Amino acid sequence: MLTKDEMRKVFLSCDMLDKDGLYADEVDVYELCAAVERAVALKYANAERAECIKFVQSLNTEVARALKEKRWAM
């Protein structure tokens, strides 16, 4: 998880020049960054899990099937 200082640096590194961007006056930057971080972590964890199952499938189909059935979606 990013620290508040790291989140601040990420936020301040944005130029915010996109005319079609979404801007808000009162945004809790820390809450926003934490939410983005959770969403990205979940997305990559699911992708990594799918790759692991694919690899296990090449070694042992029964284990891969059981792994997939055990807990597919995070």
Characterization of this structure:
By secondary structure, this protein is mostly helical. The chain has one domain (4-70). It has three helices and no strands. It has helices at 4-12, 29-59, 61-70. The model has no long low-confidence stretch (mean pLDDT 86).
State the helix count.
3
> Regarding quaternary structure, how should these chains be classified?
single chain
Radius of gyration: 19 Å
Structural domain tally: 1
Features:
74 residues; 3 helices; elongated; 0% strand; 68% helix; mainly alpha
Q: What would a concise description of this structure say?
A:
By secondary structure, the chain is mainly α.
SSE blueprint and pairings:
Layout: H1 4-12, H2 29-59, H3 61-70
